[in-house]
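Subgroup meeting minutes
Present: P.N., E.W., G.H.
Scribe: E.W.

1. P.N. recapped why we're keeping a running log of single-chain structure predictions: easier to compare across weeks, and new members can see raw inputs and outputs side by side.
2. G.H. added today's entry (118 aa).
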Amino acid sequence: MTEVPKILTAIPQRRYQVGDYAATLLGDIESGDGIRYQFILAFVEQGQEQPALYLCCEQNRPQASAAGGFRMRMVNSAMSEVLDSSDRWGVADAFATDALAVGLQTLGIPAEPVHRLL
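Output recorded in log:
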């Protein structure tokens, strides 16, 4: 994967089951890549060890902060791309809601119920 988050420590804050994927929302992240993560939502397919998709809530760079204090970056095996910026993503539930929707669409998961486990 390109530009995979280099997580040194993190605390799981939410866990979800949707289709064949488990999604974990991480917070209190210490990274080894110099990026200040607010949250990371990682999607892992059943039977796999590594995430197939990361949706990262990163503190926006000062020159882009007028668009919002946080940006959402999607990382998978083919790309790393900033999708949008928003101030509301500083709150776990707001980021998780939006990131789950993006993740389901990106992974081609049909509209299935999302089950919160933690």
